[in-house]
Write a structure and sequence with these properties.
Structural class: alpha/beta
Number of helices: 10
Number of strands: 8
CATH architecture: 3-Layer(aba) Sandwich
Mean pLDDT: 94
CATH topology: Arginase, Chain A
Radius of gyration: 18 Å
Number of domains: 1
CATH class: Alpha Beta
Helix content: 25-40%
Strand order of the largest sheet: 2-1-3-8-7-4-5-6
Shape: globular
């Protein structure tokens, strides 16, 4: 990949991050295996990419720090171990020139993966924008959370909000300004979380706004902002972004999500933009799935993001393949 250009890497690097303690429902640790079983590598290779599968981070390989946990942060020290390791691996994968794809696992993993890739792009002098495809804002802090579940604090951590300052325990921190966080598909936000977002300049497209303006208009608004700053884009796809009818295999279903076709359009527009440089696939819970339906749907969406087409329409010169 040439820094500063819109040409995509030809190599995709996969890393499983089977963490589930950030959520209240067990089962997300099986997500990486389900995505592999659903044919993720085969699909990417069929699109012309070289796939490097780095396996999974393993709990026994993590370093955990003893000490008191901040109030209202369940499993803080264990999550700290996961995200420190994920951040370091994400940074190394981005430096390799491959396009990293992180297989979750619950959404707390993004505190590590996004930190790692943001650190790399900051060294290159480019801004990392994050597209958060999710039913939830995940912008709680220990002071605002109702549940204490840390998968709901990922966005706040990435933007440097108070209360999670030592989560990386001295490892390199690469916070992004809140203006570089884009929340797309919201339909469930806590009151104090909403109040905090109201004091920040996070870009938000909830389902009401999507219904009014449509996916294409809003996605192009995000893309234009990224291009205006010579930025790159990290996509963090939570399965609950989708309507539960399409994707039942998630522990935090919220009715009224993106349809199958809307989600594919999001991915197709992102592909055409040439801006995506890293990807999270999170909150897939095979224990709750219907015979692999959700895993297959996520893999199909990845196909659209990486250039799979149902017709032979002309593609932009900055397309992936």
């Amino acid at each position: 990949m040439t820094v500063g250009s819109n040409s995509y890497p030809t190599t995709v690097a996969l890393l499983g991050v089977p963490i589930e303690v950030g959520a209240s429902q067990k089962g997300a640790l099986m997500g990486p295996a389900a995505l592999r079983t659903a044919g993720l590598s085969v699909l990417l290779e069929g699109l012309g990419f070289t796939v490097e599968d780095h396996g999974d981070l393993l709990r026994r390989d993590l370093t955990f720090i003893d000490g008191a946990e901040p109030a209202n942060t369940k499993h803080y020290r264990e999550i700290q171990g996961w995200i420190r390791a994920a951040s370091e691996r994400a940074y190394a994968m981005a430096r390799s020139g491959a396009l990293p794809v992180f297989l979750g696992g619950d959404h707390s993993l993004s505190m590590g993966t996004v930190n790692g890739v943001a650190r790399y792009w900051q060294e290159q002098g480019r801004k990392l924008f994050v597209l958060w495809l999710d039913a939830h804002a995940d912008y709680n802090t220990p002071a605002t959370t109702i549940t204490g579940n840390m998968h709901g604090m990922s966005g706040a951590f990435l933007c440097g909000e108070d209360g999670l300052d030592d989560l990386l325990a001295g490892d390199p921190r690469a916070s992004i300004p809140s203006a570089q966080l884009n929340l797309f598909g919201l339909r469930s936000v806590d009151k104090l979380e909403r109040d905090l977002l109201g004091r920040r300049d996070v870009w938000i497209a909830d389902m009401r706004r999507i219904d009014e303006f449509g996916v294409a208009v809003l996605m192009r608004e995000v893309i234009e902002r990224v291009r205006a700053h010579n930025g790159v884009l990290h996509v963090s796809l939570d399965v609950d972004f989708l309507d539960p009818v399409t994707a039942p295999g998630v522990g935090t279903t919220v009715p009224g999500g993106a349809t199958y076709r809307e989600a594919h359009l999001v991915m197709e527009i992102l592909h055409d933009s040439g801006l995506v440089r890293s990807l999270d696939l999170v909150e897939l819970n095979p224990f709750l799935d219907d015979r692999g339906l959700t895993a297959r749907t996520v893999v199909e969406l990845v196909g659209s993001l990486f250039g799979q087409q149902t017709t032979d329409r002309p593609t932009p010169t900055n397309a992936m393949v």
